[in-house]
Amino acid sequence: MTPPAAGAGATVATLRRRIAAQLAASCAGEDDATPDLDARLLVGHALGYSPTDLVLHDRESVPPAIERTVEAWADKRAAGVPVARILGEKEFWSLRFALSDGTLVPRPDTETLVAAALAALDGAGRRAAPLTILDLGTGSGAILLALLSELPRAIGIGIDLSEDAARTARRNAVALGLGERAHFLVGDWSAAISGRFDIVVSNPPYIAAADMADLPVAVRAHDPHLALDGGAEGLAVYPGLFDSLAAILAPQGMAFVEIGAGQAERVLQMGRERGYDAQSYRDFAGIERTIQLKPKAAKIGLEIGGEAANVRSP
Ligand SMILES: C[S@@+](CC[C@H](N)C(=O)[O-])C[C@H]1O[C@@H](n2cnc3c(N)ncnc32)[C@H](O)[C@@H]1O
């Protein structure tokens, strides 16, 4: 079907189809292109409708100013800017996260880590316990805030080296009504943390140096380098992070870290060499995406705390 021309008094449906056709043409040949979804997100955002609600409003006419806004956004999308960067927000765990220059766009794959932590807590009968959570490299706060939204008695600290990210995470916590239970600090991983946590989570940078240049432009040009660069083999952060667990993980605590495709064997090994029980969880594509570490020796007692010192508030 030929998409309707611009300027013909667009309805929601005609605008959506025209934008989808423009985006399909601009991304022809890209495997992971989603022109229909992108068009729904752009039109829906401009009109204040969710992508699913949009279909209920298909016959409404679109005010010309909104049509022009959507057209400008579509031109940016066609030039390779991700939808989340155009709109300045991304949904993660069905929650809305504002983004800024210093934050990674949270990825659906990372929901594997959230689901793994919740499943492990359910298995231990601890979902309703007064838990403490530490999120290292918190970015937009996606992991910590998703967990807090599911764990009514938990409190948490998110740390990022990027002050911009820590500020954005704090804004997200307040916007999501979780500001009382989430605190954000600027710091170098857990260097300045004293106290032990029931749950330590991290999605560290894990792109290998050789792969950085091959990343899609949407990632390479729009996600912060600090959030991506995992050193020569992509595994540079894990040894230090795992070493630090001895000082920050409660005796019955659990750590969950995200990994890249093909990294599971070596990261599991790093965890086991340090005396942890280690297991992996797969994402929806079947890729081992999350590693869980648990101290082997069953120690008695649970330290609640997580007192942060010598770190700057954003
Ligand atoms: C892959 S991103 C993950 C962001 C977020 N947790 C998520 O899953 O969407 C890695 C994060 O680690 C942060 N980071 C990098 N080096 C760091 C360091 N030395 N100390 C603390 N955070 C760091 C980056 O700024 C970035 O926000």
UniProtKB/TrEMBL annotation:
Residues 131-206 form the Methyltransferase domain. Its EC number is 2.1.1.297. Substrate binds at N203, P204, P205, Y206. The keyword S-adenosyl-L-methionine applies. GO terms for biological process: methylation. It catalyses: L-glutaminyl-[peptide chain release factor] + S-adenosyl-L-methionine = N(5)-methyl-L-glutaminyl-[peptide chain release factor] + S-adenosyl-L-homocysteine + H(+). The keyword Methyltransferase applies. Residues 30-88 form the Release factor glutamine methyltransferase N-terminal domain. S-adenosyl-L-methionine binds at G137, T138, G139, S140, G141, D160, W189, N203. Pfam families: Methyltransf_31, PrmC_N. InterPro entries: DNA_methylase_N6_adenine_CS, HemK-like, Methyltranfer_dom, N5-glutamine_MTase, PrmC_N, RF_methyltr_PrmC, SAM-dependent_MTases_sf. Keywords: Methyltransferase, S-adenosyl-L-methionine, Transferase. One of its GO terms (molecular function) is nucleic acid binding. Belongs to the protein N5-glutamine methyltransferase family. PrmC subfamily. HAMAP family: RF_methyltr_PrmC. Methylates the class 1 translation termination release factors RF1/PrfA and RF2/PrfB on the glutamine residue of the universally conserved GGQ motif. This is Release factor glutamine methyltransferase. It comes from Bauldia litoralis. The lineage of its organism: Bacteria, Pseudomonadati, Pseudomonadota, Alphaproteobacteria, Hyphomicrobiales. The gene is prmC.
